[in-house]
Design a protein that fits this description.
Length: 173
Amino acid sequence: MNILLPAALSIVGLLGGAGAGWYMRPAPPIPPEPCFDETGAELAAEVCAARRETEALTKTPTEAGDSGAFVKLDRQFIVPVVSEDRVASMMVLTINLEVEPRGVEPVLALEPKLRDALLRAMFDHAYTGGFSGDFTAEPVMRELRGNLLLAARRVAGADVRNVLVADIIRQDQ
């Protein structure tokens, strides 16, 4: 009887460990997608790998997923959130812009106009309730980034690829 309980617990632990190991096993590797020549015949794996490497080297930075250059706007943005005719909280945001590599200098030259356009977009976002409640929810942040990107592109053009919200803080009053 004294040996029965430890033996049963050992068997249960062994089975539990085996089950967890089976459940947590890595997924099988995904085979590479086959490639074909001009006639439609499948090429060897080595030829496909060499072709993919050549294609990756000849793509433009945007096609290859190159992140471009980043412009950090010098100062934070401070946006009041008004509720019932009083300032309920203050939003503090740090914004960076992802730009084409050739677009860094032109964007930096337009920083005062960019700050104005971005601040207007943030005021509109605050006015519509975007900084109330769960303001970091993905749909809310997607809308904010989209509006900021539109505002930045109106000022700096298509050189602005993306708007990155580096920091966002709400200080309740």
